[in-house]
Design a protein that fits this description.
By secondary structure, this protein is α+β, with helices and mostly antiparallel strands.
Length: 294
């Protein structure tokens, strides 16, 4: 792929100017050693070339090779957004986001690998920007090349990334809106479970919510994540005294649903290449919707 940038500082080195556009030293090394190219006004140059104001630098980034360790799986995908840089798809409950050493197949990463293989895209590496727990459904966000991924990690774009979730909890006594600003850390007796703790062994975590509907003794809450701690929504609502319906790891049970009633329904981000705000919505899955039916 090719990306062009106009230099605005006289005497700037190519690598400095590219760094301001999110091109890392690692990516520049890939360009240098894996068949890429740097050109200035159409003439090939190196990374320490001194630029004049208004010089146009074009970076040719080599295609990313196939990762043979990640097995492709051709499964149906519900694609909510796609362009040459990004991909947003629906993850069903019960499917992990990534593979593990004991489970090399059946994850969303396998499904995306199958999709990009089938489409014969030039970049064959899967770049996950946002993950979901195995039993959480909803929107997952992928980059289609390493530069697109690197840009979404930068504060300018990362800070525009907003994820909202629908969750089901008991309605009794729950306020119409709330803010949970409690640090989360790992439980001392578990490698999986997290908990709210105030002993300095935790990281700050902020969750806000508003009740969207109340039916059948349940509240459908629209939850916004302001930080991204492991199990954050589940831990915060459990600490509040309202464990998610179906979340037996944090105080719920499986009487009404066989998995935690948590669904990522909204994803928003500032697109680094178009500077447009992208918003993607996904409706509530039937297994959660049915619990609210009259």
């Amino acid at each position: 792929m090719e990306f062009s940038f106009t230099n605005d500082i006289d005497g700037n080195m190519v690598k400095s100017m590219l760094g301001r556009h999110g091109i890392s030293k690692r990516l520049l090394a890939k360009v240098k050693f894996d068949g890429g190219r740097i050109s200035v006004n159409g003439i090939e140059r190196n990374a320490i070339y001194r630029l004049r104001k208004d010089d146009v630098v074009t970076l040719t980034v080599p295609d990313e090779p196939n990762n043979e360790k990640l097995l492709p799986e051709e499964v149906p995908l519900n694609i909510l957004f796609e362009d040459e840089h990004y991909l947003v798809v629906e993850k069903p409950a019960g499917k992990p986001s990534i593979t593990g050493s004991l489970h090399p197949a059946g994850a969303m990463s396998n499904a995306i690998k199958g999709y990009i293989t089938q489409k014969n895209y030039p970049n064959q590496t899967v770049h996950i920007i946002t993950r979901l727990d195995r039993d959480t459904s909803g929107l997952m966000f992928f980059a289609k090349h390493r530069y697109a991924h690197a840009l979404m990690v930068q504060h300018r774009y990362r800070d525009t990334l907003e994820k909202r979730y629908f969750a089901l909890v008991s309605s009794e006594g729950l306020p119409d809106k709330g803010k949970m600003d409690w640090p989360i850390g790992r439980r001392d007796d578990s490698i999986i479970q997290r908990q709210v703790r105030f002993d300095g062994q935790a990281k700050s975590a902020l969750t806000t919510f508003e009740v969207a509907d109340r039916k059948n003794g349940l509240a459908l809450v629209d939850v916004t994540l302001h930080t991204g701690r492991t199990h954050q929504i589940r831990v915060h609502f459990s600490h509040l005294g309202y464990p998610l319906i179906g979340d037996d790891l944090y105080g719920g049970n499986h009487e009404l649903i066989k998995r935690q009633a948590l669904h990522c329904h909204h994803l928003q981000f500032l697109h680094p290449f178009t500077e447009q705000m992208i918003q993607v919505e996904l409706e509530l899955p039937d297994e959660m919707k049915n619990l609210l039916s009259v």
